[in-house]
């Protein structure tokens, strides 16, 4: 005799929802220096700035590492919006070179400060798959 029904099967559980990405996920990468743009008051030459090509800037949810600021294992960060022209103005880059920064809108500015340790702060501008960080009058272009 065949008895109908499936009362012995467990109830369907609701589908698992994917975890939304962290709001600052676009920042958290192992970036590589891919080029640079000299500002009007750069403290090093174009040749010297090119020596940073291929170097890494690593940013995680916890901290950061860069050739200019060293390593910080515990950092705080503030996020604001920006545009390439404002970045160029702030770092004495001619308006005609602002497009050379390679950032896509919308651009987010992240100011990171080391909470545990003495590493200098690190400011990064992220727009699309590219980022920029500036030091000593030179803005370094970063790619993933």
How do the strands of the widest beta sheet line up side by side? Answer: 4-3-2-1-9-8-7-6-5
Query: Gyration radius, to the nearest Å?
Result: 22 Å
Q: Helices and strands: which structural class? A: mainly beta
Oligomeric assembly: single chain
Description:
- With 144 residues, the chain is mostly beta strands.
- It has one domain.
- The protein contains 2 helices and 9 strands.
- The chain has helices at 46-50, 84-90, and strands at residues 30-38, 56-59, 64-66, 70-72, 75-82, 107-114, 122-127, 130-135, 138-143.
- A 9-stranded antiparallel sheet has the order 4-3-2-1-9-8-7-6-5.
- It is elongated, with a radius of gyration of 22 Å.
- The relative contact order is 0.23.
Per-chain topology:
Elements: E1 30-38, H1 46-50, E2 56-59, E3 64-66, E4 70-72, E5 75-82, H2 84-90, E6 107-114, E7 122-127, E8 130-135, E9 138-143
Antiparallel strand pairs: 1-2, 1-9, 2-3, 3-4, 5-6, 6-7, 7-8, 8-9
Structure described in brief:
This protein is mainly beta and 144 residues long. It has two helices and nine strands.
Descriptors:
single chain, about 140 residues, mainly beta, nine-stranded antiparallel sheet, elongated
